[in-house]
Specification:
The protein is mainly α. It has a single domain, classed as Hypothetical protein, domain 2 (Endonuclease III, domain 1, Orthogonal Bundle), CATH 1.10.340.30. About 55% of the residues lie in helices and about 0% in strands. The chain is built from 10 helices and 2 strands; from the N terminus they run H-H-H-H-H-H-H-E-H-H-E-H. Helix 8 packs across helix 9. The radius of gyration is 17 Å and the shape is globular.
């Protein structure tokens, strides 16, 4: 009989959610391509559940050229129209246009700082913020750091980067460890 694995309460029984939780969520990211993917997926999540996004992740990957921000920055009206017809993704024109805009702003940050990674980790002074939550109810939707990140990204012209989205972004990319202390991944992501 398989031993029961203790995961964070939000994961549920969806195998895609479990895989995401077990392999990606909370693992520190230092790859600009992955940063742009998370930025895009978190923007599309606004107002929706994460499971909706996870279930469509492969479709997003295909529709948005594997999150190649250099290509996305050059999307035109024809590409927007094509994406609006793609039933495999969230067909929200504002979010599609924001993704194109964010790709352009993302590259400006790369030019200024050498990489998006170098820029974004400044918000946590290059270290993961380690929390010690025992209940899912304790996990905040935002923080002072996500407030500051949101303010700065908006100033730079990014769209769909409110504080709650920024906090989800920080959780996904390992800038904050919000695994519950009794989750099997809590200690693993500390390493």
């Amino acid at each position: 009989m398989e031993k029961e694995i203790n995961r964070c309460g939000w994961v549920g029984a969806n195998p895609l959610m479990q895989k995401y939780h077990d392999e990606e969520w909370g693992v520190p990211v230092h790859d600009d391509q992955k940063w742009f993917e998370f930025l895009t997926l978190d923007a599309f999540q606004a107002g929706l559940s994460w499971s909706t996004i996870i279930n469509k992740r492969k479709n997003f990957d295909k529709a948005f050229d594997k999150f190649n921000y250099k290509k996305i920055a050059n999307y035109d009206e024809a590409k927007i129209a094509e994406l609006m017809q793609d039933v495999g993704i969230i067909r929200n024109k504002l979010k599609i246009i924001a993704t194109i805009n964010n790709a352009k702003e993302f590259m400006k940050i790369q030019k200024e700082f050498g990489s998006f990674d170098k820029y974004i980790w400044q918000f946590t002074k290059g270290k993961t913020i380690i929390n010690r939550w025992t209940s899912i109810k304790e996990i905040p939707a935002s923080s002072e750091v996500s407030d500051e990140m949101s303010k700065e990204l908006k100033k730079r012209g990014f769209k769909f980067v409110g504080s709650t989205i920024c906090y989800a972004f920080m959780q996904a990319a390992g800038m904050v460890n919000d695994h519950l202390v009794d989750c099997f991944r809590y200690k693993e992501v500390l390493k």
